[in-house]
């Protein structure tokens, strides 16, 4: 069945680089992943609802636009996803990797939460991942392309709740099972689908208070909060040939936070 995302006749890539789409790529984790993949030889499409910044970052990676482009895409817009992916295919070649990184994590207390707060978080994190995955899978199927890989973004919050993010935890727990379902349903295309569950990864100055960091640190056996390269390294692995037999998995990248209670019997933190 043809869709907007059809790669006509399996259009060959412009260059020799395999092509990866990264959503939410204008800053933070998505940008770091894009930079890492590009440095490792991928052509990258940086998609973000902040298209201007995504384009500027792509230009910084490759001013010629041959191996990096930035496009505006709000993953909530169902009608916009397939055309954006088709544009990637026309410009860089058929994408063989998708990183569903776009996500939001605002705090809203359960009893004060507006329905619109709930819908926005579930929508961007879960529905957006579904829309991008479906468009990507259709594109690969319709162009008769085998192989490829998807990495979804769950969170430690999928397994360990935090006060004020019931919508976020629910969305990320949904990602874990969505990933497993996709691994099954997309297997006939040779597509692998995995997820990462980051713990606290410090990507912006305004992200957390000093008090929160100090309290959280006592629960991380590794003794530090995470950094963007902790995530991009695992994403790169999951997209690459060394992960050929990894499918339907969600890898925690959290310094051991989810391992359990990092307390001695005396009640002191281990790190
Ligand atoms: N940073 C952490 O500690 C952490 C922990 C666990 C999980 N995660 C997950 O990692 C992913 C990235 O987080 P981050 O810390 O880099 O976030 P961030 O807010 O710093 O960056 C998110 C990017 O996504 C873009 N974006 C947001 N909504 C979008 C939409 N509807 N369509 C397209 N783009 C959109 C933003 O413009 C931004 O560029 C998210 O899925 C998040 O839930 C992050």
What labels would you give this structure?
271 residues, alpha/beta, Rossmann fold, seven-stranded parallel beta sheet, 39% helix, globular, disordered N terminus, binds nicotinamide-adenine-dinucleotide
How would you describe this protein?
This protein is of the alpha/beta class and 271 residues long. The chain has one domain: Rossmann fold. The protein is 39% helix and 14% strand. The chain has seven helices and seven strands, in the order βαβαβαβαβαβααβ. The protein has helices at residues 28-39, 51-61, 78-92, 115-142, 166-185, 210-217, 228-239, and strands at residues 19-23, 43-48, 68-72, 95-100, 149-153, 192-198, 250-253. It has a seven-stranded parallel β-sheet, with helices on both faces. Helix 5 (166-185) links the parallel strand 5 and strand 6 (192-198). Helix 3 packs across helix 4 (115-142). The structure holds nicotinamide-adenine-dinucleotide. Nicotinamide-adenine-dinucleotide binds at residues 23-24, 26-30, 48-50, 73-76, 101-105, 124, 128, 153, 155, 198, 200-201, 203-204.
Strands, helices and their partners?
Blueprint: E1 19-23, H1 28-39, E2 43-48, H2 51-61, E3 68-72, H3 78-92, E4 95-100, H4 115-142, E5 149-153, H5 166-185, E6 192-198, H6 210-217, H7 228-239, E7 250-253
Parallel strand pairs: 1-2, 1-4, 2-3, 4-5, 5-6, 6-7
Residues 23-24, 26-30, 48-50, 73-76, 101-105, 124, 128, 153, 155, 198, 200-201, 203-204 line the site of nicotinamide-adenine-dinucleotide.
